[in-house]
Amino acid sequence: MKLDAPANDSFDDEITAIGDEFVDEEVEGPVDEQFAPALDASWDSSGSDYETFNTNGGFSGDVAEGPAVPEFLPLSDDAWGSSDADVQTWGPLVEEHPNCPDTAAGSEIDDKSSGRAWNYWDPVGYEDELASPHCVSRVLRDLLDLTKDPLTGVYIATVEHDITRFHVLMVGPSGTPYEGGFFHFLVQCPPEYPMQPPRVRLMNTDDETVSFNPNFYDSGRVCLDMLGTSNTPGWSPAYSISSVLVSIQSLLTDKPYFNDPYWSSDDRPQDCEAYSLVVEHETIRVAVCDAIEACLNGSSLCPPHLREVMLNLFMLYYDKYEKAVESKLELTGTDMRDPLFFQTYERGDYQYQTLLLRLRKLKGEVEALIKARGEDEQ
Q1: Neighbouring C-beta atoms of residue 53, cutoff 10 Å
Q2: Strands 116-119, 108-111: parallel, antiparallel or unpaired by DSSP?
Q3: 136: helix, coil or strand?
C-alpha cells in the first residue's frame, strides 16, 4: 500500500505524538495548563458535531509535551511541533490509508449502505465513518492520560481531521527477538467507543506474508480478548487506549512461542528457540530494513514524525542489529522452519548475509541524510 497524496501539514500545532526516548534517562514534560480546559469543554459539547469540535475545541494551540526522542537528524520545523526545544514528540498529520480490506473467510461483515464488505476488526476501510461526540471526548481524555503517563517505546500520531484514528509506532523491547523493530499499527476508535473496542491493524507484514507472533496474523489482525478478535471477547468500557497498547506491547516477549495457548513454558524448548530465530530474522528484515528503506524512499505509510523517530532510533540500535546478524551468519541458506505450524516458513531460508549488507547500506544512507541536512541548515 502506498499513499497517493503528500502529507498534510495544516495542523502542525496539534498534539499528534506521544512517546519516549530510547536512552536510559527518561524525560517527561509537563502538560500545558491550557490543554485541560479544552478537554473539559469537549465533554460539554455533546450537541456539537465533530467538525465544529475539531475546529474550535480540539488540540489546536494547546501543547502537551511527552518524553523526548534523542535527535540525531537535524529535523525541519515542519516535522516537529516547535523549534524552541531540542526535541519534541508531536508532528504533522497525514491523510487516511487507502482501502485494502482483508478478505479472509469468516472475518467480514457487510456494510449494506455502501455495498462493501469490511473486516470488523480492521480500521482500514472505515475512513468515512463519522465519529460520535462521546467517542471524540473519550479519545481526547485517553490521549491526555498518555501524555501524563507515556508508555516506553510507544509513539502516536493522529490522522488529520479525525482524532479517533491514529498511527502507533511500537519499538520492540530489548532482550526479545523484537528488539529495535518498528511495528506500525493503525488504530481507530469506532463511534460506539468506549462501549466497543478500538479496531487495530498491524500495517507492516510484508504484503500480508509475515506473522511476527502467534497473536499477530499476517493479515495484520491482532488477536486479543479485549479487542474482540479472539474466541473469548473481553472488552470493557473501563479499558482505554493505553490499556490496549499495553496489552499489545505485552505480546512482544522474549519467548513469543509460548504466546500460543496450546503450549506451556515446559513444552518443546527447541521449538521455542527455533520460533524466536524466525521472529528475530523477520523483525530485522521487515520491521527494520524494510521500514527504514520505506522512510528513505518516501513510501512509508507512517506519518512524517514517526518516520523521523524510526531514522533516529535506527542509528541508536544499529550496533545491536549488526551484532545479532553477524552472530548467525552461519545459518544463511538454511531452512527457516516455523515450529508453530510444523512446516518450512514461507520465506524459505535465512538470509543473514543479505541482511548484513542491507543494514550497512542503510546506515550509510541515513548518515548521508544527516550530513546533507546539516549542510542545508548552515
Answers
A1: 20
A2: antiparallel
A3: helix
Query: In angstroms, rounded to a whole number, what is the distance separating the alpha carbons of residues 63 and 14?
Result: 7
What's the burial of 238, exposed, middle or buried (CB within 10 Å: 0-12/13-18/19+)? exposed
Fold designation for 35-377: Ubiquitin Conjugating Enzyme (3.10.110)
Residue range 66-80, pLDDT digits in tens: 344 444 444 333 332
Mean pLDDT of 201-215: 93
Report CA Rg, the chain: 21
Q: Helix and strand tally (H, E) in the chain?
A: 8, 8
> Residues 6 or more apart from 55 whose CB is under 8 A from it?
none
Q: Are 45 and 57 in contact (CB under 8 A)?
A: yes
Q: Where are the alpha helices (DSSP H) in the chain?
A: 35-43, 50-56, 133-148, 241-249, 269-282, 291-297, 304-326, 352-377
Q: Which grid cell is 61?
A: 494551540
Distance, CA of 352 to CA of 284 (rounded, Å): 10
What is the reported pTM? 0.72
Check residue 290 and give left, alpha or beta (phi > 0: left; psi -120 to 50: alpha). alpha
Q: Per-residue confidence at 230, pLDDT binned at 50, 70, 90?
A: confident
Burial 262-278 (b: 16+ CB within 10 A, else e): ebeeeeeeebbebbbbb
User: What would the pLDDT profile of 155-180 be if each residue is shown by its tens digit?
Assistant: 999 998 899 999 999 999 999 999 99
3-state secondary structure of 233: coil
Q: What are the residue numbers of the active site?
A: 223
